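Model the whole thing, not chain by chain.
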Amino acid sequence: ELKVEQNPLFLSMQEGKNYTIYCNYSTTSDRLYWYRQDPGKSLESLFVLLSNGAVKQEGRLMASLDTKARLSTLHITAAVHDLSATYFCAVDRGGSEKLVFGKGTKLTVNP
Amino acid sequence: DAGVIQSPRHEVTEMGQEVTLRCKPISGHNSLFWYRQTMMRGLELLIYFNNNVPIDDSGMPEDRFSAKMPNASFSTLKIQPSEPRDSAVYFCASSPGLPRYEQYFGPGTRLTVT
């Protein structure tokens, strides 16, 4: 059974600081996804990582994938309040479109 | 494109009543997914369709839940009879398939069963 673990589950940080969210998964997969969810809202796709060593960046967020370690990271640079949200990673089961989601990391950026 | 459309956005019903949630996927997407999100269980995949055919319904909790996709632009998730433990946010998502299999989520339906 594919399991996806994120840590930390809760992260409170100050504006201007850097931090990394980790996503580990238990079985081989070729695709990893990062989503953002604001309170009471839907999930918004941030990154799709399709191969080992893939790195994607958008603004203050950068995601990377190491398929050999079964690890993805979401790095936050110089956090701002607008980044406060819950971030989910998700992994597909090889050969399937089904996604298994982590429990999410609730990020709070304080002034 | 309008994105994935779900209706209703909020539903409050009494235990035992039938509830029908509706979804219109993004035009051209060939896969559709129904998810349920709760604080306790997180985000769970209930069922997904490819080209209107149910592919995997292993996440459907029990026989009270059923889903249909009569055509490429419409799907329903029905709960009959509803129970308080069904209270959750139900999301529909669609995907264009290869190569990214990226899923685009609708706004969700918040269901409260009293």
